[in-house]
Structures are given as structure tokens and as C-alpha cells.
Amino acid sequence: MKKLRKRALIYPIVMTVLTYLPILVVAVYSFNESKLSSKWDGFSLKWYAELFRDDSILEALGNSVFLGVTSSVLAAVIATSAALGMAKSKLPLRHWVEKLALLPLIIPEIVLGMVFLAFFSLLGLPFGMLTLIIAHTAFCIPYIYTEVAAALENLDLSAVEAARDLGAGRLTAFFTVTLPMLSPAVISGMFLSFAMSFDDVIISIFVTGVSVNTLPIKVYTQIKTGLSPKINALCTIMLAVSVLCLAIAGIIKKIHRKYS
Amino acid sequence: MDDVSNILEIRGISKSFGETSVIRNLSFSVARGEFLTVLGSSGCGKTTLLRIICGLEETDAGQVILDGRDVTAAEPNLREVNTVFQSYALFPHMTVFENVAYPLRIAKTKISKAELVRRVSEALELVRMTGCERRYPSALSGGQKQRIAIARAIVGRPRVLLLDEPLGALDLNLRRQMQTELKNLQKSLGITFIYITHDQEEALNMSDRIAVMKNGQFLQIGTPAEIYDSPKTVYAARFVGEANILPCTFGKMTGDAAEVTFEGLPLTVRRGCISREYGNGESVPAALRGEQIVISDAGRFSGVVSDISFAGGVMRITFGCGGTLLTAVRYGLDTSVKTGDTIRFEIPASAAVLCENDEGGTA
User: Fold this and answer.
1) Are residues B198 and B316 in the same domain?
2) CATH number, position B317
3) Are B104 and B221 part of one and the same domain?
4) Are residues B304 and B215 in the same domain?
5) A contact residues 140-169, partner B, Cβ 8 Å cutoff
6) Cβ separation of B92 and A168 shorter than 8 Å?
7) CATH assignment of A55-259?
8) Is A259 close to B138, i.e. CB distance below 8 A?
9) Which of A124, A150, B76, B334 is the most exposed place for a label (fewest CB within 10 A)?
10) pLDDT (tens digit per residue) in A131-187
11) Digits of tens for pLDDT over chain B (363 positions)?
12) In this structure, what CATH number is given to the domain that contains residue B105?
């Protein structure tokens, strides 16, 4: 029995090492005094300081945050209305429509990127922030949709009927009862979307113009000119942001489950 | 009846879901301040009826007149009718105070903060839930949720309060206690209650009038005493107060009474709600309450006891008489009767009442 348990432990350890060791190395070396990643010269925040003095990186950061927030908000509006409409609809093809909506989750990103590129060229849209927002909104929708659809399934819609019965018009009932009851799902979905948008590089590269850089694109192009501790620092920050977003999404869901 | 005395009038409403007809051409009126109970087993259409009255369901035909105003097409928020839902339907993201304050906050006519607090406290006091203002529904028990749902429904002073099996999820003791409280609440508020239940005890305890519902129609509507005394049909007789049904052979009508034969012996029964005439020799059911059967050696009828139960001070003696199983009810324990005994019994004149056979087959 004990032997078996020991053996069962090996797999998680191997997996953890494979995934997290490289991350750890990058994170640790972002605090390295030395410019070379081969030797440790002591703890320093100088690469972070340098990062925040670099205007092109700050601009990319601004773009990434703007893009992430805008597309999460847009995706939240679309996905929430879609999930609500879907829950009420009695269409026979409902489940197929639903599966179709979730397809972007499994379509290879490179395909999605290509498709967006071709489509936007066809429409003659200028490549830049607008095309980025459209593409990011599109691939963020399924993340929020799944969250909201799952929440709707467990939601007691009689509370909404009660609101209408107690004197609330359709809109009032939506904003005072339906939306607040769904908000944990919507918000956690938005954090998830933001994390996805914030670290997306493949689709972004296809749909961005020459003038607009996001943080992941910046990392990607910088690496071509060689690794630097500055990039380590940037990656560490991005990692922290992503982990934070996912953690917040998880905590919101957990708290909500406790109170309903 | 005119619109002034009736708070609610239902005129010929019908509702179908797909092929299933749930409510069939139903009409009735409810007087101001009345406590009307709609009694029926599950699936009889009583919840659909309630949802049509409060506007959450559209009627296929007919009209809903609330206090003289036709509200048939009005949205639920534009009807001065509030509902206590079976599932309570409290808002989980709001505290008890916010739940109860909700109807006042969203109302078109704004009231001052002090007035709001006063009215919410008043409503909470009525349901004896003062002190729970800051708690969330998830921290309340079933009975407490129930009270909050009632407080929330009465705080806006609706003209009619609809209650959909509000006590269904509570245990027996709490249910009995809440029955009394609800009745008192209705009296002190003076609001019209339309109460839906499948529990005949609740109906008999609380109502001014009971409507017995079956297959989307009212079989009978009347005071609890009327329905208990003169059930119109076999179903109503069995559903309200568990009557014995005697298969009788019709003889003749004489005013309010009728001469029939049961088990070959002549019997005088009340005419009850029967309006049509029967032919001589036609079979007709009569309802007889268990407490009206007199077990005595002087009785003309005889039966063989098949079962005896004693619960809550009430003794039920079930015996077969011809092809019919009858249950006599006696108060207090009588050890002289045993299972397997042959007993003699009498049915006093005018104890049984004729009713319509609505259960199919011969009664």
C-alpha cells in the first residue's frame, strides 16, 4: 500500500517539475543582478526598474490592459445575453447552437488567427486596436458563456418571477435580480477572459497592425533579438497578472457557492 | 354580482400547454377580504390558475377582472396582486431587510427612507421576524424563509394575496401553527387571500370558502361546512373529509330528501346539490361521513370488521357491507369491537347525501 502511494506520487512530481521549474528559473533570474543568466550576482530589482523606464513596454502594457478590459466587457455583454436567450429558447437545435458557440475553445489558435486575418482583409478593416478588440472579444465569449450558462442552470428563476410579481418591470427585474444573481459567474468569466486576452500572442500577431503592440507581442519580438533579464522580469509580471486573474475568478465562484 | 363587492372576477378562462388542457372555461368571483382556498390534487391546474391571476402566465381565453379593472393583458408588475411562491423565491443576494423592502424601493411612488424602514419593520413584526433584518436567506430555516416571503408579499399592501402551497415544505407542527397565524394575519390585514393547497385539513381550517378543483375546473365552491355537509360529487366527498360512498338505488325525490335503497333496505337521504332527476331504479352514489354511522345492535345493516385503527383519540372501524367497504369513526377507544366481528349498524335518516358520480364506473 505504501509503495503504491509512493509510486503514485512520482507522476505529479514529474509534471510539476516539467511545468514549474522553467517558470521558477525565469522568475528567479528576473531578480538577478547580473545580465547573464548563467551566474547569480545577487538579488536586485533593477530589471523591473528598467522595464518601467522603457516607454515601448509601458505602451504595450497600456495596450494589453485596454484590450483585455474592453474585450472582456464586450464579451461579457454578448455572452451573458446569449446564455440568457439560450436558456429561455426552446429551439430543437439549441444544443447544437450551443456547441457551435463553444468551438473557438478547441479550434487551433493559429487557425483562428488566420481566419480573422483573412476575414478582416476581406472587410477592408484597418489592422490595429479595432481588429484586436474584435478578435479578442470573439475568442473570450466562450469562456464567459460557459460560466454564465452553468450558473443559469442552477439559478432559481422563480426569484425573477417574484420580482416581476412584486412590481418590477422587465428591465428593473433584470438589473435588480437576474444580473446580480448572475454577477459572480459574469465577473469570474471576465477575469478568465482577461487572463486569456492578456497572454494571447498567436491571434494577436495575425490581427494587429504595425503600430500596435501588446505585451505578449513585445515579448515575442524581443526574444528574437536575444534573451535578457528584462524579458524575464516582464514574463514574471505577466505570469503574476494571469495567476491573480484566475485566482480571483476561482475565489468569486467559491464564495458564491457558499452563499447560495 | 357587481364589480364593487368583488375584488376579483375570473370570467371563462382557459389554458392549454400544447395538447394538454390545464384550465377549462373557469369562472368564479372572490369577495373583498375573503379567504378562498383552491383545493385540488397535484396536476389539477391550481398553480396555473394562480399564475394567470398574477400575470406570469397568459390565459388563452376569458378575462381577469381585478377590482373592476380588466387586467387580462396587464404585465405582472402592473397588477396589485402579490404572490407567496411555493419555493419562497427570496432574492439570495439581498438581506432579509432588502428582500422585504424590494417592492417599496421599486414602486413608482417613492416614499421616504424613514417610512420605508417603518413599513418593513411593521411587515416583519406581523410575521414575527423582527431582528433578522441583516441575515441572508441562505441563513434562514424553511419556516423563516416562509415568513419573509409573506412579509415581502404584504409590505406593498396588494389588493389580493396569492399563496401557492406556502406550507407545503414545513413539518406538521409548524404547518398547524402557521395555519392559525396566516388566518389571523388575513383577518388583521383585511387583504383578500387566494390560497392554493392539496391539504384538505388546511382548507377546512382556514377558508371562508373552498373551491374543489379537478381537471382544470371547479367541481364545487362553497363554505367548508357546505362542502363537508353536501359534497356535490364523489370526488369532492372523498377529497374533503374522506367520506364513505354508498352505492344506492334511486327511489323518488320528496322535496329536499330522496328515498333510496342501500343493501336492499330503504334509506332516506338528503338531496344535497343534485339538481337533476333520477329515474326509479337508477343507481346513485350517496356520501356518508364516518362519524354519522351508528354502531348498535338495533341497526338494520350488518357488516364484518376488517380493520381497526386508533390514532389521535379517533377510532376508525373499517367493515365490509355487501360489496362496499365503509369506515365508521368513533371518538375515544371502544374495545368491544374486534377485527373479524360481525357488527350491526344504522344509517340515520338524512345523514347521507346524494352526489354526482364523477369517478367513472358505478359507485
Assistant:
1) no
2) 2.40.50
3) yes
4) no
5) 156, 158-159, 161-169
6) no
7) 1.10.3720.10
8) yes
9) A124
10) 999 999 999 999 999 999 888 888 878 899 999 999 999 999 999 999 999 988 999
11) 444 678 999 999 999 998 899 999 999 999 999 999 999 988 899 999 999 999 999 999 999 999 989 999 999 999 999 999 988 999 999 999 999 999 999 988 889 999 999 999 999 988 888 998 999 999 998 889 989 999 999 999 899 999 999 888 788 888 888 888 889 889 988 899 999 999 888 898 899 999 999 999 999 999 999 999 999 999 999 888 878 999 999 988 888 888 999 988 999 999 888 877 888 888 999 999 999 999 988 889 999 999 999 888 889 999 999 888 999 998 888 888 889 889 999 999 999 999 988 865 433
12) 3.40.50.300
Q: Are the beta carbons of B83 and A165 separated by less than 8 Å?
A: yes
Q: How many structural domains is chain B composed of?
A: 2
What range does the domain containing B338 cover? 294-346
ipTM confidence score = 0.81
Q: Whose CA is closest to A214, among A54, A58, A90, A43?
A: A58
Of B195, B229, B263, which residue is a domain's last? Answer: B229
Q: What is this structure's pTM?
A: 0.80
Q: Are both B116 and B11 inside the same structural domain?
A: yes
B154 and B71 in one domain? yes
Cα–Cα distance, A241 to A216 (Å, whole number): 13
Count Cβ atoms within 10 A of the Cβ of residue B117 and give its class: 0-12 exposed, 13-18 middle, 19 or more buried: middle
* Domain presence at residue B357: no
Residue numbers in A near B89 (CB within 8 A): 156, 158-159, 161-162
Question: Which residues from B are below 8 Å from A167, CB to CB?
Answer: 77, 103, 106-107, 156
**Would you call A166 and B87 a contact, using CB atoms and an 8 Å cutoff?**
no
Report the chain B residue with the minimal C-alpha distance to residue A169: B77
Assess whether B54 and B198 both reside in one domain: yes
